[in-house]
Amino acid sequence: SLHEDGESIVAVVRNVTDRRRAEEALLTSEIRYRTLIENIPIGVYRTSQGPPGRFLMSNPALRVMLGYESEEDFHEMDVDALYVNASERETLSKNLLKRGSLTGYEIHLQQRNGTPILASVTARSG
To answer: Which residue numbers delimit the PAS domain (predicted)?
Structure first.
């Protein structure tokens, strides 16, 4: 096509249908994953490595299990504070890094009010 002054217009057209479908499928998958994690009655979390450790993600079941109502309060504390003995987290971390994954690994945690609980952890590093 030409402008009134005789200049031409150059345009590039690409078919982005496949990309758009992939983006929509990814979004749908993310929504399903988040819904599963938020509603599963088992505690799920991700933490940073090393002491003292920070929660990167936790689901409501974990927070209820440990006596926390607020996600913000839960994520502000050091992960080490949940362990009856902080060295137990170090041992768990070393075993996890060495093996790559753990199944049914028992740890002693404490609820917000100080009540100890025995927890079985299944985890993988990465």
So the answer is: 29-72
Strand ranges (DSSP E) for 6-80?
A: 45-47, 55-58
Instruction: Name the residue among 81, 20, 19, 31 with its Cα closest to residue 54.
Output: 81
pLDDT tens-place string over residues 79-98: 888 999 988 988 998 999 89
User: What contacts 50, CB < 8 A, 6 or more positions away?
Assistant: 93
Cβ atoms < 10 Å from Cβ of 102: 17
Q: CATH classification of 41-124 is 3.40.50.150, yes or no?
A: no
Q: Provide the whole-model pTM.
A: 0.75
- Provide the residue ranges of all domains of the chain, joining segments of one domain with +: 41-124
Place of tokens 């929504």: 31
Q: 58 and 44 in contact (C-beta within 8 Å)? A: yes
Exposed e or buried b for every residue in 56-80, given b needs 16+ CB within 10 A? eebbbbbbebbebeeeeebbeeebe
Question: What pLDDT is stored for residue 126 in this prediction?
Answer: 73
> What would the pLDDT profile of 53-69 be if each residue is shown by its tens digit?
889 999 999 999 999 98
